[in-house]
Amino acid sequence: NCVEADSPARLCLFLDLDTVRGRTRAVEICMFILQLDSAENMGKVKPKVVEAVDSLASDPGWRDHACTTIFLQKLSASDDVRATFAHYAAGGIYGHIYDATPNEMLEWQRPIRVYDTTALYHLSDAGALPALMILCADAEREMDGRRLVLIIEEAHLALKHKLLRPWLIDLVRTTRKKHLGIIFVLTDLEGLDEATLRTLKS
């Protein structure tokens, strides 16, 4: 369980810094977190986030060191932006979930993974939704030509979110040719637009 306050952090925002795609995903997750908080002008902040992610990636030992706390140390940004990420670092309200290093996240994974995210739905969007992005990015990281299946239950909750929906739709479109199948389990279609449903069916 990754949401118990006394459990070690299980999720890492910076899981795959070896590749351009992995660094891009890390920046996307960070920017998503900022958008949830509506911190400030995203255009001005993004270069600072990219710089901090690149700095993490330049460390030969990044798999043991790249976590939100170290990212925060490298981030040169306004106090408001830093305060947003502080929630996900050691001592922050979500730090016990999101402050893992890549190796700390990978060490508890198995070839077949089942993530019970039920407890996350009791958190705010800021606490719950980045977890789904990280788990999807982790599945994308594992694509190597084998057929992979990612099943997301209660997916209507994420697909109804104005910020997360386009990211998930883009993920579906860019990974379907790489043998990653994504199954969205929907129990409530109310509020899902026709364009989204058509994309999921295609």
Largest sheet: 2 strands, parallel
| Silhouette | globular
Global structural class: mainly alpha
Q: What is the averaged pLDDT score?
A: 84
The total strand number stands at 2
Strand order of the largest sheet: 1-2
* Proportion of residues in β-strands: under 5%
| Overall radius of gyration | 16 Å
Euclidean distance between termini CA atoms: 34 Å
Care to describe what's here?
With 202 residues, this protein is mainly alpha-helical. It has helices spanning 20-37, 42-57, 62-65, 68-74, 79-86, 95-98, 102-106, 125-141, 155-159, 164-175, 194-201, and strands at residues 148-152, 180-184. Strands 1-2 form a two-stranded parallel ribbon.
Question: How would you concisely characterize the structure shown here?
Answer:
The chain has 202 residues and is mainly α. The protein is built from eleven helices and two strands; from the N terminus they run ααααααααβααβα. α1 crosses α2, α1 packs antiparallel against α8 and α8 packs parallel to α10.
Write the layout of secondary structure elements.
Layout: H1 20-37, H2 42-57, H3 62-65, H4 68-74, H5 79-86, H6 95-98, H7 102-106, H8 125-141, E1 148-152, H9 155-159, H10 164-175, E2 180-184, H11 194-201
Parallel strand pairs: 1-2
